[in-house]
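Tokens in:
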């Protein structure tokens, strides 16, 4: 009864995404912790002098993110109360994330190592925003919490929930299923913002080339993701579905 009472349905009826999600951790508690963790992390990068050090790069990323976030309220009305925030972390790490209520970051290494076009960068930002819209972080934190409670590895008090939100709220290793969902929804919102959905295919072609070089910075990012070749096939099938959104925006 306890477990079934924690089951809720997230149904966006978009991009073919429709399934039940296990959400044990309350959204208010998750968002509060995740937002705070984000601020602490950004403050840490700022103190090290690696936050938004290159104004032109930050402006470019912000412009793309703002165009995409303008598309999400019709998908998730609750986002009207979100305070969106984006930063560029000027390190060589190849990664990006969106946590809590629209708290985002892109590492400079993602942009420069892959030599991203605006459309490819939009594919990444759209993908990360989709994770937040679908609350994949809260879902994963909830399932991991219950798994460890069942194994008797941790206690069951409120501090435990706080620990899992804190541990899994940022740079979360999502499951392959969640990654595929974020690909589809991210493709849609980026296309609606006027970015070419085919860029997601070229993005993962670049990721595949980087993976061949056994880049240590990329190994953690790809460990729970579909392999680039599989991802490219799925994106190639999905891209034509979202092309009308891109063309409509382009020729307005």
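Residues out:
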């Amino acid at each position: 009864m306890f477990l079934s009472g924690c089951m809720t349905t997230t149904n966006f009826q978009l991009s073919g995404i429709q399934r039940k999600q296990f959400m044990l951790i309350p959204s208010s508690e998750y968002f509060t912790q995740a937002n705070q963790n984000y601020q602490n992390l950004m403050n840490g990068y700022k103190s090290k002098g690696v936050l938004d050090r290159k104004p032109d790069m930050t402006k470019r990323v912000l412009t793309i993110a703002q165009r995409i976030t303008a598309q999400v309220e019709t998908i998730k009305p609750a986002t009207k109360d979100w305070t969106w925030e984006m930063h560029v972390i000027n390190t060589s790490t190849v990664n990006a994330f969106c946590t809590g209520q629209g708290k985002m970051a892109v590492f400079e290494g993602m942009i420069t190592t892959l030599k991203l076009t605006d459309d490819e960068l939009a594919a990444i930002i759209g993908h990360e925003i989709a994770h937040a819209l679908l609350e994949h972080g809260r879902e994963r934190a909830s399932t991991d919490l219950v798994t460890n409670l069942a194994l008797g590895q941790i206690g069951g008090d409120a501090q435990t929930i706080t620990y899992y939100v804190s541990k899994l709220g940022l740079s979360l290793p999502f499951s392959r299923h969640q990654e595929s969902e974020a690909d589809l929804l991210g493709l849609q919102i980026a296309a609606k913002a006027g970015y070419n959905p085919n860029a997601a295919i070229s993005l993962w072609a670049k990721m595949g080339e980087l993976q061949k070089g056994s880049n240590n910075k990329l190994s953690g990012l790809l460990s729970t993701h579909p392999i680039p070749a599989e991802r490219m096939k799925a994106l190639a099938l999905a891209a034509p579905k979202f092309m009308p959104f891109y063309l409509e925006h382009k020729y307005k």
